[in-house]
Amino acid sequence: MILVFLTCLLTQAPKPEPAPVKAPKLRDELQARVKEDQAARFAMIDFMAKHQTGAKSADGRTAVSLSPEQNKELQTLIKRVKKADDDNTAWLAEIVREHGWPGKSLIGESAAHDAWLLVQHADAHKDFQDDCLQKMKAAPAGEVAPRDVAYLTDRTLTNRGKKQIYGTQTRLENGKAVPFPIEDEANVDQKRKECGMQPLAEYLKQVEETYVKPKP
């Protein structure tokens, strides 16, 4: 499901910090990898917004069909995203084996967020995502942003067909962002607030503004 691995772009990365870090080369490599990750995904988002390819009708069918040329372009974009994800997952797995989860004290707040982004996109390796999530949860206070834990928690649950907690994983139905099933949805905004995230309704509106091309 394309939308699931793209919506994480809507999180707000912390501003780069000027303070020195323990592993500047690792920080720089993360930044370079995230740059390609985001370039590949923004190309996909632009295509989706233009052609509404991520939209689904209420019965689950694709809302817009593509021409052969457009479908070829889409497949090229998908392959670019997949290659970035595969390369980044293999690389990050080595980093985690060597350092444990790379947190703020090792690479700085912004790069720690970058590390989360790579594992968030490691959907082909669910066990690796689960392992990283546990390491992030076990990290000392201040090492990992609560919102990053929240997003990866939802990702791992949704990937395994379970209800998410924070409503971060969405799909489009008739141009409207719809979260995948949420556990205890009545209290989701309070849980989001505790992690520093905006109310669910505001988030869904942001998803729609990103993925749905405005009508002329």
What sequence of helices (H) and strands (E) makes up the elements?
A: HHEHHHHHEEHH
Largest sheet: 3 strands, mixed
| Quantity of strands, as a count | 3
Strand content: under 5%
State the low-pLDDT regions, or none.
1-5, 57-61
Helix content: 55-70%
How large is the count of helical segments?
9
What does this structure look like?
By secondary structure, this protein is mainly alpha-helical. It has one domain. The chain is 59% helix and 5% strand. The chain has nine helices and three strands, in the order ααβαααααββαα. It has helices at residues 2-6, 24-51, 68-99, 104-107, 109-120, 126-138, 146-159, 188-194, 200-211, and strands at residues 55-56, 170-173, 176-179. A three-stranded mixed β-sheet has the order 1-2-3. Strand 2 (170-173) and strand 3 form a beta hairpin. The protein starts with a helix and ends in a 5-residue tail after the last helix. InterPro entries: DUF6624 (IPR046732).
Structural key phrases:
216 residues; 3-stranded mixed sheet; 9 helices; DUF6624
Question: Mind sketching the topology for me?
Answer:
Layout: H1 2-6, H2 24-51, E1 55-56, H3 68-99, H4 104-107, H5 109-120, H6 126-138, H7 146-159, E2 170-173, E3 176-179, H8 188-194, H9 200-211
Parallel strand pairs: 1-2
Antiparallel strand pairs: 2-3
Helix pairs in contact: 2-3, 2-5, 5-7, 6-7
Briefly summarize what is shown:
The chain is built from nine helices and three strands, in the order ααβαααααββαα.
